[in-house]
Design brief:
Strand content: 15-25%
Radius of gyration: 24 Å
Number of strands: 25
CATH class of the largest domain: Alpha Beta
Largest sheet: 9 strands, mixed
Length: 569
Amino acid sequence: MAGNISLVVRNGTVIDGTGAPAFEADIAINDGKIVEIGKISGRGVEEIDAHGKLVAPGFVDIHTHYDAQAVWDTQMTPSSWHGVTTGVMGNCGVGFAPCRVGDRQKLVELMEGVEDIPGAVMAEGLSWEWESFGEYLSALERRQRDIDLCALLPHAAVRVFVMGDRAIRHEAANQGDIAQMRQLTEQAIRDGAFGISTSRTISHKSLKGEYTPTLRAAEDELTGLAMGMKDAGAGFLELVGDWNQPDPVTEFAMLRRIIEKCGRTAVFSITQRHDRTEVWKDLLKMVDESNAAGVSIRPVAAPRAIGILLGLEGSQNPFSGTPTYKSIAHLPLAERVAAMRDPEVRAKILSDDPVKGSTFPLFHRMSYTKMFRFGHPANYEPKREDSITAIAERQNRTPEEVAYDILLEDDGQDFIYCPLVNYVDYDLSGPEAMLANKNTIMGLGDGGAHVGFIIDSGFPTWLLSYWGKQRNRWSTEDLIRRLTSDTAGAAGLSDRGEIKLGKKGDLNILDWDKIAFGRPYVAYDLPTGGRRLLQKADGYEATIVSGQVTYRNGEATGKLPGQMVRGQR
């Protein structure tokens, strides 16, 4: 190739993202796109020797929540530490546009309750330079980042914008409301939204404990939103739900009717619930039937259990609702640990009611039979005999006593791991079966959300390290496909996800032998000094966005080529 080349990656083992066998080649990138693949004679302004390394497309994560962080931050960590070069945000029906001035607090409280992003952080970090969805995208375009971002239109924001307090009270939308929602959806898609998201789960509540405004939206309302996508000729529907309104068959049939009518596509979150253990199997069967009939509805599944981390540095622990713990919760970690080691304080905390004063509603449904010492290195696949209940029985102690002592291990830096879904039989057979389905998309890492007690945004690294290196369940080529062309295709991102001439110059250079996780930790780097859980990764020798190296061996280079991607542009 004649002329200057901005970047050449040489001598790598190329995994092109399609699932095809790996091959040896050089890759040239210029003006942000792949311009040559093969033996490249020309020199690049910058060169990377990838001998002995895997060269893969940048990862595309279709389920993130960087809607707030993208306003104030240039680095979409932790996702960008795990090879993600494009993230789709605005999932689960929550977000910040469209929004009238008087409704800002409503959307903040909803985001705080649903996605565990502290309200004080958002109050400080959100600039509110917008009212419409298009204005929101324009505001985000004014900041550079380390990854590209795409946005879905959040149904809750649309509903509140149209219906005001009637939306919060879960009143049914009238035909005028639906017509306006349809128009707003069409305009948002034309302005660059990649689709619309909605939530139908009772686990999504505002800070005040109110169910998400979209919970009981009727079929005609959801159809109106979908028809807005049809009017614009683009977009997909993202849905999270409990599948019990009134049952999975009826609920899925409604979703299928909506997608058939609008002619677009849909994705939905699928998990193995601990209280309704077989529903996911029924959903997969209906998915297969729907796709065989030409109606594209695909489940998005996690590659392991989705679990919370309970710790003294996190936002919750089993005793955070007790009066005695609350009296010392403000102390620095070292002082808190010292206080909790005092026999008198210990006795008081263990005798206090942990539920009455708790701000963590899930605690009421949790059981020590599904709580485990997290440890270092982290154990994401504990056995039944590793549960706190089992340890307590062997040691003739109460589960509370065991949990208390675990929290103090490693000077209070360890966590208790509590799988909420996907761990019915104390193994990962559920996630494995979901991932084995040809229609399933890997996702649900929730980057940017649940900052105080869930850290799953490293799912790409987990997929490679566990299902690839440790279990050898799927080929490396197939695992990379799941992280690249499969997710890019589902989102409608036809310009990336493959190493192919003319495609976007987003790459990961991987040292396969070193792919692994770091230890989860708490950082106080959000606006107002807010805390969040973070987890780094090993094995990413370089991450490249639009031909610019953004990370080398996990460290930021300072390059910020990431942009807001508009779907219709």
